[in-house]
Amino acid sequence: TAQLIKADGGYHLWSNTYDRDLDNIFAVQDEIARSIAEAMKVTLDLNTGASGNLTGTTSTAAYDAYLRGMNQWHQRTGESLRNSIELFTQAIAIDPGFAKAYAGLALTYAIIMDYTDTPFREGYGLARVAAEKALALMGDLDAARAEYLLAYELDPKARILGNNLAALYQAEGNWADAERVLLRLVSYAPDYADGWDLLLYQYIRTGEIEKARQVADKLARLKGLTENSVQVYIDLISDTEKKQAAVENLIRWSRLDRYSLADPSLLPWSHEILLAAAGAWPEARIVLKEAIEKYPVYRYGGTRVDRTIAAFNCSAETQAIYAASGLPELVVPYPCDELLK
Description:
The protein is mainly alpha-helical. The chain is 65% helix and 3% strand. Strands 1-2 form a two-stranded antiparallel ribbon. Helix 2 packs parallel to helix 4. The radius of gyration is 24 Å and the shape is elongated.
């Protein structure tokens, strides 16, 4: 049943009930949409035109494959992303004009390098334009937060939305909201390693050692690691004689294959930030340069806007690294004068 009610007074303008067999859901959707559009034009004297097919395809099989592909994309594991590629490819084979399926394929290629041993350049070409646009917009943390909050409200169980919103909170130093989002994320997605990864990073940065140990045990099991390296991260933030050894370990780990089960690193994507926060700036710059040389720009783009390492980011040596990195200019300049007061 569709109804049109005048909002200011509750006056009933129009309604109709549609009873159809769902042999072809797209045909039914189009028929009802056109009927409502026509009724709106007559009732409100509008020229709305005819409604098109909002799914983007006339094939139920293609749309089903697309939906299953997006479901797998949201799971964020190596296996699920390979499944996504297969499902989006199926959808395209069924309907070569199905734009959403191509978009899903591009989304998958853009991130699969983070979850598998797929070479970065293999998927980078497909995602380059979108990634550069995203980087230019993610330089404005206030605008990014507003967009993420809206997306999170619309889809609160999307793993990557919760993950990225928490990461943004962490970059702002808003540890309380970051923890709230992450605890909720791992409660409904307990197999999502990236969520536990950020939660471990959170507790290392906030110095909550026992919580860090518990999360590290969970993360190591999820990643199938043969060694749990949490003590090294704990030593890194300490003021003991073990700190320098921890720094040296992080430098060594950053050069290992992050997919090797022999690599004990639990937080490979956070090493430059952890080192910078621990005061090991020369070593942090080594890892940052390595990231710029080896990985796509979104891998290290977030480091540049992280407010929790403002002094490191604003130093002349680090600014020179960013200037030579090829990153686009930030929409909102990094506020060094304000942050260093």
